[in-house]
Amino acid sequence: MRPPPEAPGVLYGWAMIWTLLGIFAGGMALNLTPCVYPLIPITVSYFGGRSGKSELISHGLCYIGGLSITNSVLGVVAALTGGLMGAMLQNPLVLAAVAMILVVFATSLFGFWELRLPSGLVQAASKSHAGYLGTLFMGLTLGVVAAPCIGPFVLGLLTWVASMGSPWFGFIIFFTLSLGLGLPLFFLAIFSGNISKLPRSGEWMLWVRKLMGWVLVGMAAYFIRPIWPKTVGIFFLAAVAMAAGLHLGWIDKTKASFRAFEWIKTGSVIVAMVITTLLIGTWALQGPGVAWKPYSAELLSEAKKLKKPVIIDFYADWCSPCRELEEITLHNKEVVKQAKLAFIMIKVDLTRKGNPVYEQLLKEHGIKGVPTIVFLDRQGNERSDLRLVDFTPADQFLIRMAEARKPALVSDNGHGKESG
Questions:
Q1: Same domain for 128 and 266?
Q2: Domain boundary among 210, 236, 260
Q3: Do 380 and 401 share a domain, yes or no?
Q4: What value, to the nearest 5°, has the Cα angle with vertex 68 and ends 65 and 73?
Q5: Which position among 15, 21, 56, 157 has the lowest Cβ density within 10 Å, counted as fewest Cβ atoms?
């Protein structure tokens, strides 16, 4: 089995938007950790000492640019090296190992251990330099200075990006994280008179660290989910969300001097309950999906005799876009209806290696990875222009289903096949 395709399903449609918004919010939250928050007055005063708005904005852009360069390069490098993980991610032991790494980094944010860099490196990064290059240097080295707090989260995010194997994905994720980290400081510098209104440093920042730790635990649950049956995976994700809410909102006794903090803690419980309800509710209300049949040559011959188009789904349990296709697109009522009325639906399950029939089928169709969905017309010929190699929403899938029926329908009426 060859590696799965590069493009991760998480970057499609609303899933991409919510993912980037979540990463941006995570970057903003990192500003509230004990290692970064005390630097805010220093950084803002550095910007605020500039003589004019244009100079201030220029320095702010240099700072954000430095942050973006460091993080984006990390993201791209992780994706390029992590592309080698593609073939390994079909192994449950590898998925479990990735999840364990994320949990280990999470325990650092929970306070069980602390990430420490060599003191010489930290001192070098802490030095201030004049001019625009100095501002750029500050942005480049923020990750080094604040490594004990933001390092575990960034390393956990790098592990996730590496598993996706897409350099563009790595770049956009870490560029968004940089904006989340840098923009609050930029706007505080512009409105530096409001710095006195910020809450004082205190124990509440440890609560923010724990929040980021639970984000990594959630990512670990996402990784390990393909190992388990669908129902178990959904309930495990729901359990992680509820545990995070209970810990952050009720069990954790962190206090703060500003009233809004108690509302924030209560809000974390509400958010956790909403996520849990959505996960379980969506699963409970999900209608029947497409009725698949296992592959056989006899089934293809039968489809030719019946003059029915065929859809072949090359699938694996460990493949996240495959599961996304199955749970969303292939549970859509109209897709299910069309599949039942007009198609022969065949699933080739590649979760386990070693089936010689499937290996031959991969060679015949030139399958390079999963998910791959092949459409055959009524004569049994593949419509290569309709092939899918990643998650596709139901509306686009229905268009392909309609196209797969067209040539045979036109031919039956005696007018020949349509071109294009």
A1: no
A2: 210
A3: yes
A4: 130
A5: 21
Q: What is the pLDDT of residues 194-248, one digit of tens each?
A: 555 666 667 778 888 888 889 889 888 877 887 787 788 889 999 999 999 999 9
- CB atoms under 10 Å from CB of 260, counted, come to 10
Angular region, 307: left φ>0, alpha ψ -120 to 50, beta rest: left
Domain match, 259 and 323 both: no
Rounded to whole angstroms, the Cα distance separating 256 from 259 reads 7
Residue in 205, 284, 211, 263 with CA at minimum distance from that of residue 241? 211
Q: Does 173 fall in a domain? A: yes
Same domain, 24 and 168: yes
Structural domains of the chain, count: 3
**Strand order across the 310-315 sheet:** 293-294, 344-349, 310-315, 372-376
Q: Give yes or no: residues 297 and 244 share one domain.
A: no
Q: Which region, left, alpha or beta, applies to residue 295 given φ > 0 means left and ψ of -120 to 50 means alpha?
A: beta
Cβ proximity of 248 and 214 under 8 Å: yes
Report the run of H or E that residue 63 belongs to, with start and end.
helix 53-82
216: in domain: no
Query: What's the rounded Cα separation, in Å, for the pair 223 and 163?
Result: 9
Q: With left for phi above 0 and alpha for psi between -120 and 50, is residue 270 left, alpha or beta? A: alpha
Q: Are residues 274 and 297 in the same domain?
A: no
Q: Where are the alpha helices (DSSP H) in 191-229?
A: 204-224
Last residue within a domain, chosen from 183, 210, 237: 210
List the structure tokens of 253. 């006794």
Q: Indicate whether 2 belongs to any domain.
A: no
What is the C-alpha separation between 363 and 356, in angstroms, rounded? 11
For tokens 């650092």, what's the residue? Answer: 108
Residues of the chain with pLDDT under 50: 1-11, 83-85, 121-122, 124-126, 408-420
> Residue 404's CB: how many other CB atoms inside 10 A?
22
Q: Which domain holds residue 365?
A: 293-412
Nearest to 169 by CA among 9, 400, 349, 387: 9
Span 318-333, pLDDT tens digits:
777 788 888 889 998 9
Is residue 246 included in any domain, yes or no? Answer: yes
